[in-house]
Amino acid sequence: MQIRYFAWLKDHTGCSQETMALPQEVSTIAQLISYLEQKGAGYQRAFQNRDVVRVARNQEFAALDDTIEDSDEIGFFPPVTGG
Amino acid sequence: MCDISITVGPDDVSLDAEIKQMSEAETGAIATFTGIVRDSGGELISLTLEHYPGMTEKKLHQIADQACQYWPLNAIRITHRVGRLLPSDMIVFVAASSAHREAALKAVHFIMDYLKTEAPFWKAEETSAGTHWVDARESDDKAKEKWQA
Fold first, then answer.
1. Contacts of A80 in chain B (CB under 8 A)
2. Model-level pTM?
3. What span, in angstroms and rounded, lies between the C-alpha atoms of B87 and B122?
C-alpha cells in the first residue's frame, strides 16, 4: 500500500510518501496508525492528537474504523485550510 | 448540462479572460469570487499552498457537480493556486454562470464554503518569526453547515 503525508504530518514523519505491504495484524485505519506509531518518535508526534488528523482512503475522506486493503492509497493530513 | 473546469496549479488567472470565456448566448449572469492573500498585521512574507494532487481536483469536481445539481448553471470554473504566493496575490477564483443571477450567486457562495472545508489544501505562513502551518477555523465549518439545513 501507499501512504502519503501532508502539511505538519509530513514534517513530523519526515517523508511525504512511503510504500509498504499491509501488515497482517492491520485491517483498519486506526490499526494502521498504531502500527505506524511504532516506527519512531516522529510518527508518534504526527498521530499524537488523532482528533485533528484527517484521513483519505483512495483519495476520498475516510473514518478511523474503515477497513483497508493492500492496494489502497492512504493519505494523512490536518484539517484543510485552502481558499 | 453544466460545463465544469477545474485548475490547480501555480499560475495566476486573467479574470477578464475567464469571464469572456463564460459569456455565451444563454448566460445572463456570471458571479465570481476572488480570494486574495491577506497580510493583516503587515508581517506576512509569503504564503505557501500545499495540496493533495489528484484528490484536490477530484474533490473540487465533486463540489462543482453538487452545485450543478442544486442550481440551473451553465458553467463553473474553479482555479486554485498552489506553491509560494505573496501578499495581494490571487489565491482562488470561482465563477458560476447561469441564465439569472440568483443561481450564479448562490452557487459561488456554496462552492467557496465547501472548498474551504473539504478541498485538501494547506497554507503555511512565512513571517520574520518563521514558518508555521495555518490552523483550520471553526467558522468555516459553520459556514458549510448552513447549506445542510
1. 116-122, 136
2. 0.95
3. 16
- Written as nine digits, the cell of B119 is 478541498
Inter-chain residue contact A80 with B133, CB threshold 8 Å:
no
The ipTM assigned to this model is 0.95
Q: Within an 8 Å CB–CB cutoff, is residue A53 touching chain B?
A: no
DSSP string, A18-64: EE-PPPTT--BHHHHHHHHHTT-HHHHHHTS-GGG-EEEETTEEE-T
Residue where the block lists cell 473514518: A63
What φ, ψ does residue B21 adopt, rounded to 5°?
-65, -25
Contacts of B111 in chain A (CB under 8 A): none
Give B3's strand partners: B75
pLDDT digits (tens, 9 = 90+) for B9-32: 999 999 999 999 999 889 999 999
Counting Cα atoms < 13 Å in the Cβ hemisphere of B13 gives 28
Residue B53 phi/psi, 5-degree rounding, is: -55, 135
Q: Can you read off the three cell numbers belonging to residue B67?
A: 452545485
Pairing of strands B83-85, B121-127: unpaired
Contact B92 A81 (CB under 8 A): no
